[in-house]
Specification:
Rossmann fold; 2 domains; six-stranded parallel sheet; 315 residues; elongated; alpha/beta
């Protein structure tokens, strides 16, 4: 088939949406299909459209359905679709889902957020991660990585706030990788570094550098207020890096409801306590490692490819 993947993230972007679109393109090409990735739909020939983001790609979804009323259409829901636009712009978001033959979500807990009349269309596809090179955690510090752009949805400086006043004997250092979406966020990160010797913002970096930071980190913190199913959780789990996460559906849907590494969203004191617990208590740290190890098989690339094979076969 000729498959077109539409994402609002432009070429060259390192956003999660673009990364997901490119990985799906590789998977679908491996299935024998011809795949293109674009930021919209201009009427180009296609046997199937996969639209990443119900709200932002609504025009592409509408145009494709008008041009090809009987060809298959898949809409993949992002975190902002599920936890923002279904509330603030429900008509447009639901219209994209109504036009779709299948709705893809990236974690199990997302199913309950989809309007009940549309749930029969939903299929869950967990994002996978390749096994990275062997880990080499830093011996001189307890490095914690934060992988995420600086924007409101990510609550990006929560980990920095949590380590401001750690006791002097703590060896915690925070390495934050991600692009500032506004000048105000960049200024806030620079100001935080000036007052907080434990926080280091490295900006947007190539994926190979993300892998290097993973290899030296003892923990990863995902502090988001909303997520559609963050691929950095898959990357961390497969890399053997335990995760500490805000308790939101997007993380619970990937790590499981009984995972021991959650803290209440935006609760700085609770995050501080958990980070110190992980640094000081080897038994607790081992619990986090073991719980992540139990989830690793869920993020096997072969499993993600099989999930896409099944979705397409069902169409």
């Amino acid at each position: 088939m000729r498959i077109l993947i539409v994402t609002p993230a432009p070429r060259g972007s390192r956003s999660g949406n673009r990364t997901t679109a490119l990985r799906w393109a590789r998977i679908l090409r491996a299935e024998g299909h011809r795949v293109s990735v674009t930021v919209g739909y201009d009427g180009a020939p296609a046997d199937l459209l996969v639209a990443l983001h119900a709200w932002r790609s609504a025009a592409a979804v509408q145009h494709y359905r008008e041009r090809h009323p009987f060809r298959p259409l898949i809409v993949a829901l992002t975190g902002t679709d599920l936890y923002r636009f279904l509330h603030t712009d429900r008509e447009i978001t639901c219209r994209s889902m109504e036009l779709a033959d299948r709705i893809v979500v990236l974690h199990e807990a997302a199913i309950g957020t989809v309007p009940e009349p549309l749930r029969h269309k939903v299929r869950v596809i967990l994002q996978s991660a390749e096994t990275p090179p062997k880990r080499k955690p830093s011996l001189g510090s307890f490095d914690i990585c934060v992988i995420g752009h600086l924007r409101d949805e990510k609550d990006p400086l929560r980990t920095a706030y949590a380590v401001r006043d750690l006791p002097p004997q703590s060896q915690v250092q925070v390495l934050h990788l991600g692009k500032a979406h506004t000048d105000a966020w960049a200024q806030a990160a620079h100001e935080e570094m000036a007052r907080n010797r434990r926080y280091h913002w490295l900006g947007e970096v190539p994926f190979r550098q993300v892998r290097q930071v993973f290899s030296r980190s003892r923990l990863m913190v995902l502090s988001s207020r909303m997520e559609g199913g963050a691929n950095v959780i898959s990357e961390a789990v497969v890399a053997g890096v335990p995760v500490v996460a805000s308790r939101i559906d997007g993380s619970v849907g990937l790590l499981g409801p009984d995972y021991p590494g959650y803290y209440p969203t935006a609760d700085t004191a609770a995050l501080t306590e958990m980070l110190l617990h992980a640094e000081r208590d080897p038994a607790f740290y081992s619990r986090l490692q073991g719980a992540c190890a139990l989830r690793a098989l869920l993020f096997d690339p072969k499993r993600e490819q099989q999930a896409w094979h099944d979705v397409l076969a069902g169409l």
